[in-house]
Amino acid sequence: MPPLALLLAIAVGGGLSGGFQPETAPIVAVAYRGTPAGVPRADELAAIRALGFTGVSWPQSGTAGLAELSRLAASLDIAVVGAPGVLIKVDRAVPDLQAVLWRAIARGAKVITLDAGRSAGAGLADGKGNRLPWTRTASTFASQLAASPRLYMNLKRGPAVTIVSPPPAGPAGPAGVEVALLDGGRAWVLIATSTARAQVRAVAQLPLGVPPALWLSLLDGSMMSMLKQPAGPRWTFTIGPGAALVYVIDKAPKLGNW
Question: Whose CA is closest to 146, among 87, 77, 63?
């Protein structure tokens, strides 16, 4: 088995084309309205950045406060996004938030904005100052992207993956489950997500030429292998409700070919 450190080196390379935007690392942004509304504050922006978020959107009418927001954000290495990209409402509980976030990446999103729907501030905490549950899931997600920025920067859509069981068979697979194979140049990235309300055990058919082993989880560092088949590897996996599985593997037959 190759050393884990070498497998982690997979997260560095490739080109990009198709519907995905090149040379851009994904931004995980928060809809920020200032306190009072329209007045950006350095301490609130610092709190957003401390949780690992890399951008803010400014859903205000007109441009009031935008210049000051841009100045403060630049000093904290926060992007001010002009459009929210994939907008996720977190003004109420989102039990499948992990799946929704990773599915956005699987579909090519380069900007993901979380909006707590507050009239002021960023909605990171409740009235007692306690962090809201959505911030923990989203912060972990942002940190996972930040751990391998070049990998996610260079992703493009790969060949189709077919879920062969459980029925209904076909690219759509069972209700709520999606599997996407992404091309990272030197590596393949495999993302499975589920918005189903129960655990699902599924089998996915990958295209010929994709290595069956050893895949590294980008979420917990575990390893997995697939069944080698003449038509391409088959992946049997179990995924919980609202969960995501994210794996990466080197394309080259030998890691020494990098």
Answer: 77
Contact at 8 Å (CB) between 182 and 193? no
**Whole-number pLDDT of residue 214:** 93
Amino acid letter, residue 176: G
Domains and CATH numbers, the chain: 24-152 (3.40.1280), 155-257 (2.60.40.1180)
**Does residue 212 sit in helix, strand or coil?**
coil
3-state secondary structure 42-111: HHHHHHHHHCCCCEEECCCCCCCCHHHHHHHHHHCCCEEECCCCEEEECCCCCCCHHHHHHHHHHCCCCE
Backbone angles phi, psi at 30, to 5 degrees: -120, 135
Average pLDDT over residues 183-212: 94
**Single-letter amino acid, residue 224:** M
Q: Token pair 């403060």 is at which residue?
A: 72
CA–CA distances in Å: residue 10 to residues 143, 190, 250, 252: 17, 13, 6, 10
Q: Is the pTM of this model over 0.70?
A: yes
